Amino acid sequence: MRARPDLIEHLPRLRRYAKALTGDVNRADDLVQDTLERALAKLDLWQPGSDLRAWLFTLMHNLFVNQIRIKRPQETVMEDALDEPVSGGQMEALAARDIHAALARLPEEQREVLLLVGLEQFGYAEAAQVLGVPTGTVMSRLSRARERMRQMLAGEPAVKLKLVI
Amino acid sequence: MTDNVHEHELHAYVDGTLPEARRLEVEAWLAAHPADAARVQDWIGQNQSLHAAFDSVLNEPLPLNLVRATRRPALPVPFKAVAAMLSMLVTGLIGYAIGLGTPGQAPAAPAYLARDAAIAHAVFSPEARHPVEVDAAHADHLVAWLSKRVGTQLQAPDFSAQGFDLLGGRLLTGETGPVAQFMYQDKIERRVTLYVRRAVAGNKETTFRHATENGVDVFYWIDGDFGYALSGQIGRQAIQQLADAAYSQLVTP
Fold it and tell me: With contact defined as beta carbons under 8 Å apart, do A19 and A119 qualify?
C-alpha cells in the first residue's frame, strides 16, 4: 500500500487557474471540487513519480471542456467578473478589469493555453500534454491568444477610465 | 515573419524558455525590429497583468469543502473534527490542518506550525516568476513591511555563508494573524523558506524540532511570541545547518 500524495498543496494553484478560466469564483470552486473528486476516484491510475500537478490540471481541463460542451450554444460571457473587487490600488483594479473582460472574450481553447503558459508557467510540451493536443497546436493557439489579447487590451482603457472615475 | 527569428521563438523569449545564447540573439533582433519588440513587450505585459489579477487567489483562505474534498471519503471524519473544522471556517489560510490532526482539542503547539510552513513552502517555492511579493532588491522595504504587518521587528537571517541568498518575501494569512515568508535560493536554484508567525498564546519556548511533511523537511521552533519554521527539500542535514544559522541570528537574548 503506497502512500497517497497530498492534494492540498495543489489547491491554491488549481483555484487560481480555475478562477482565471471561468471568470467566476463560485464556478471556479465548483470546478476545483469536481476535479478533486475525480482525482480521488482515479488516484490509483496516477503514476507515482509523474507530475501530479499536470495530472490534476489535465483532469480539470477535461471537466471544463465537458461543461462547455453541455452549455453550448449558450454564451459563456462572464459579465460578473467585471464587478469583482480586486485588491490593490485603483489603477491596478482597472487593469484587472480589462484583463478579466479580455479573457472572457477569448475562445476557451485559446484562454486555456494563455493561462497555462502565461499564468501557471507550464512548458509548451507540458501544456500540450494537459490539453491533449500537439505542441504545435499549443504554439499556434498561444500566438493567436496573445495577438487577440493585444488588440482587445489596446482599444479599451480610455472608455473604462471614464466609467469608473 | 522573419528569416532569422521564428514567431515561436518570440514567445519562448517571453516565457523564458530559450537557451541563453539564443535569448541574446533574439534580444539583439528585437533591438533592431521595433514592431516585434512592441509585440513582445505587450505579451510580457499580459503575463504580468494575469499575475496581478489572479495571484491573490493563492493567498486566500482555502474553502473548507475543498480541503475536505482532498481527503478520501472512505476515511471517517469524527464529528468533533468536523465541528473543529467548521469553527475554523473563517479563520484563514491554514486552520484546517489543526482540525484534521487533533479533533476536538486545542492544538498542541507547535506541531501544526511545521505542517503549515511546509504547505506554504510547497505552494510558493515552485513559482518561477513570482515566488515573492517583494524581492530582495528592496530588502529594507521588505523587512519593514513584513515587520509592520506581523507586528514585531523581523529580521531576515543571512544565509550567505551557507550559499543561500535572500530572494524576497511575501505576506500570508494564518489563523493567528499575518505570516511572513522569506524565501532564499542557492546557486543551483534550490529554495528554502522561513515562515514566521505569532505563536498561539501560552506557547512555551522550544528547542528545535524536525518534521517531514510530504517530502519537505521542516525545522521549527518557538522564540518569545513567535513561531519560526524553516522548510526545504535540500536534505535534512543541509536544512538543519540553515536552521542553526537562523536560530543563532534570530534568538532573543
Answer: no
